[in-house]
Design a protein that fits this description.
alpha/beta
Amino acid sequence: MSDDISGEVAAIAGYFKQYEVFATNIYDYLLNNKIEWIELACSEAGKLDDVLIGLDDKIIAYQVKNIASSKFSFSSFTSSETESILEGSFIGWKKLKNQYPNHKIDAKLVTSQRPSENDRIASYRGNPKPTFKKFISNFWSKIKSGNYTLDNLPLAWKAVFQELKTKTEASEDDLIQFIIDFEFIFEYDTNNVTSGH
């Protein structure tokens, strides 16, 4: 087998997990005649580029990380030598939002990893410093659900919000909407990914 062919096989194998994630959702939407278009490896969607599913009122955009050996930390999400998952996802979300102003953007990060229970978020104003798992449950999920807004965000979390705002170069309103539109799916397997109906 030539190096070129073996490289292509390795590349295709690397995408198997992505295809597996979307297959159930695509099938469900096809059964209900809801899909208008599908795009793979979209160059215009930042880090939300693995698969885009276009429905009549919604764009579902996926980023898939199949890393079984480590836990997903705050640093995994917000920091990178190039472009972090947070930054790239926000860029992709913003582009899709501008391109499809009449559609809800349903952004999903799907990972085989667990949210970290061992890291600490330094910008949090209080002690003990929260882990990424606490960040998801006590900050991200509460903003998504509407329990926290800019008006009632606890003081201890305001510096974390500001850190995310600085990293994304977002307005406060855009960052809030991005959090509302963005879903983490941890410990992925084919039985726990929902189609989001």
